[in-house]
Every structure is written in C-alpha cells, then in structure tokens.
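Supplementary Methods, section 5.1.

A reviewer requested that the exact input to the structure prediction be made available. We therefore reproduce it here, unchanged from the version used in the analyses.
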Amino acid sequence: IVYGPSDPVSVVGYPFGKDAGGYAIWATGFVASEPSVDYLGLPILLVDCRTRPGQSGSPVIVQRNLGPVLLEDGSMISDGLPRFRLLGVYSGRINPESDIGMVWKTSAVREILATAVQTG
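The structure derived from this sequence is encoded token-by-token as follows.
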C-alpha cells in the first residue's frame, strides 16, 4: 500500500493500560511526515495522533477497506478486501505538549530483529 502525508493511520494499543473488552484500542491519526524522509536522521516516521502513555510499542498501520489500492510496485488491486500495511512501532511523542508521535519504521524493526538473531 502506498501512503503519504495526511493519510489515515492507526496506533493499535493500550492507552493508560486500558483495553476494550479484552481487545486493543485503535487510535486514529494521520501520517505527518514524508515516508521517505528520516526524522532527525533516524528511521522514524512522524504521525499526528492523539496517543497516551501505554501505547509505546504499539503497531502503527495504514488500512484501506475499499479498492482500488495502489501497491508499491505500481500495480493496482481492486478486489474489495481490506489491505493493511505495518508502518512500524510507535515510540512516543516528540514533546509532551504535542500530538506528533514517532514511529520506528519497519526497516529499523527488521534490522533490530536480524541483529538479535545473529547475536542470539
């Protein structure tokens, strides 16, 4: 799924350690930075989402429910099925007074996991 600034995203987690009937809570926000640009030179994407303590470590996804959906290889898919893309892992806001949050991109998560497997 291709995505960019202002596209909706969801941070799926447990704000203040709370759940909704045993399920995670989906906080919705928007992509706030260019996906190809690394924030502060780190593999971080910014999102504008009202998150709270307890959501660090939450997956951040972009979802499309209706077609057609543009894929990264340039192809289109239009089968009416929902499509998800994991953008990364939420790690908190850039400032306590801001709703702008940081998401470690999936490339960083892959690198961490690969290193852990090699050293593990």
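Residues 93 and 101 are 4 Å apart (CA to CA). These observations are discussed further in the main text.
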